[in-house]
Structures are given as structure tokens and as C-alpha cells.
Write a structure and sequence with these properties.
Elements (H helix, E strand, L loop, with lengths): L2 H13 L9 H23 L2 H7 L9 E4 L2 E4 L21
Antiparallel strand pairs: 1-2
């Protein structure tokens, strides 16, 4: 629902003598705003940004295999997200 996509044809219709439904233009302006607000609310409810706050406080969110330190992934038991001794980019932890 793009307001500009509706406004342009309505304006052209009026200029060339037609009758455009200007009373419906508000729907194309309000719809995206309401949809954006609902999407933000859904994100807060589904993505749960408070999990990031738990990680900042030292608590480990459920479902993680290891601790994250900067760009390095330190697996707990060797079966984590990266091979032991490697960063997420595949370089050795000692800087090579």
C-alpha cells in the first residue's frame, strides 16, 4: 500500500477530466503506519530483546552452545558453533 502509487494515478485522472476516489487516499497513508506499529509490537513479543539484556548481565540465554567473546566463539565441549581454537572466521585464536 504505497500512498504515492495511489496519489499519482488519482492526480492524473483528475487532470485529464476523470473522477478519482480521493476519499480513499487516507487508507493508503494510515495503513502502512498501523502496519509498522504492529510489526514493531510483534518483534518485541516474538524476538524478545530482553534475552540480550540477560547476556549482558552474565546470564547465558537458553539454547546457546557456548559463550561469545567479541568475535570469538568459545564452545563449552568442542561441539559448539566453531571448532575448538578457531574464531567464527576460521582463524586461529592466537592471531594467525
Amino acid at each position: 500500500m504505497n500512498p504515492a502509487r495511489t496519489f499519482g494515478p488519482n492526480l492524473a485522472t483528475n487532470i485529464f477530466g476523470g473522477s478519482a476516489p480521493w476519499s480513499e487516499l487516507w487508507i493508503y497513508c494510515v495503513g502502512p503506519l498501523v502496519g509498522g506499529a504492529l510489526a514493531a509490537l510483534a518483534y518485541d513479543l516474538i524476538a524478545r530483546p530482553d534475552r540480550a539484556a540477560e547476556a549482558d548481565e552474565g546470564r547465558q540465554p537458553q539454547g546457546t552452545a557456548g559463550q561469545v567473546e567479541g568475535r570469538r566463539v568459545l564452545p563449552e565441549d568442542g561441539r559448539g558453533a566453531a571448532a575448538p581454537g578457531l574464531t567464527t572466521e576460521g582463524r586461529q585464536l592466537d592471531g594467525r
